[in-house]
Amino acid sequence: ANFSKKKTSEEISNNFMQRFSVCSPSSYRLNPITSMATRSGSLIWFRKGLRVHDNPALEFASKGSEFMYPVFVIDPHYMESDPSAFSPGSSRAGVNRIRFLLESLKDLDSSLKKLGSRLLVLKGEPGEVLFRCLQEWKVKRLCFEYDTDPYYQALDVKVKDYASSTGVEVFSPVSHTLFNPADVIEKNGGKPPLSYQSFLKIAGEPSCAKSELVMSYSSLPPFGDVGNLGISEVPSLEELGYRDDEQADWTPFRGGESEALKRLTKSISDKAWVANFEKPKGDPSAFLKPATTVMSPYLKKFGCLSSRYFYQCLQNIYKDVKKHTSPPVSLLGQLLWREFFYTTAFGTPNFDKMKGNRICKQIPWNEDHAMLAAWRDGKTGYPWIDAIMVQLLKWGWMHHLARHCVACFLTRGDLFIHWEQGRDVFERLLIDSDWAINNGNWMWLSCSSFFYQAQSPFFFSLYFIYNRIYSPISFGKKYDPDGKYIRHFLPVLKDMPKQYIYEPWTAPMSVQTKANCIVGKDYPKPMVLHDSASKECKRKMGEAYALNKKMDGKVDEENLRDLRRKLEKDEHEESKIRNQRPKLKL
Ligand code: FAD
Question: By CB neighbour count within 10 A (0-12 exposed, 13-18 middle, 19+ buried), where does 276 fall?
Answer without folding.
Answer: middle
